[in-house]
Design brief:
Blueprint (H helix, E strand, L loop, with lengths): L6 E4 L3 H13 L17 E6 H4 L4 H15 L11 E7 L5 E4 L9 E10 L6 E2 L2 E4 L3 E3 L7 E6 L4 E3 L2 E3 L2 E11 L3
Length: 179
Amino acid sequence: MREAAYITANLFKTDHLKLLNETISQNIIKGSDQPSGGAIKSSQVKFIRLMSIQKLILPFIDFIMTTNIHHYGFDLFPLAPSKTLNYNTYKVNEEYSWHVDASMHSPVRDIKLTCLLNCSTEKYDGGDLYIFRDGEKKVENFNPGAAVIFPSFMHHKVEKITSGSRATLAIWMDGPKFR
């Protein structure tokens, strides 16, 4: 296991998040979500191609690459402009129970990093992100405009929203199969 369970950074202000959310809503594509087996996932999932928002999230992409270099050292495939990203929205009583982000179906790749950007622009309560490493650990400072990165094989969950709504953009960084 590498040194850091997760890394966070504040990247964007509310005005930028509003522009990002508006751009996402104008560029939604069809897709299907496949929640992790056995997990409860009640959030709404929409899909967008990276190329539609790439310029708007360059600081996020830079944070992903820099964090991998300094904290995890995974071999990662380059981000293709056609990559599909998940845009998750959680409303009151919606959650995603304990799960890992993994793909056992590919003979040549694994998901290495889970990279989340909190795109919320309005106040919400609940919806805390927890990671399991030597016990449950609440991810601190994952506020609107912040990003968090952690290894995809770590169990994590999003608790139920109790008021308002929460939005996150997810990028899963793939690489060659773990050996």
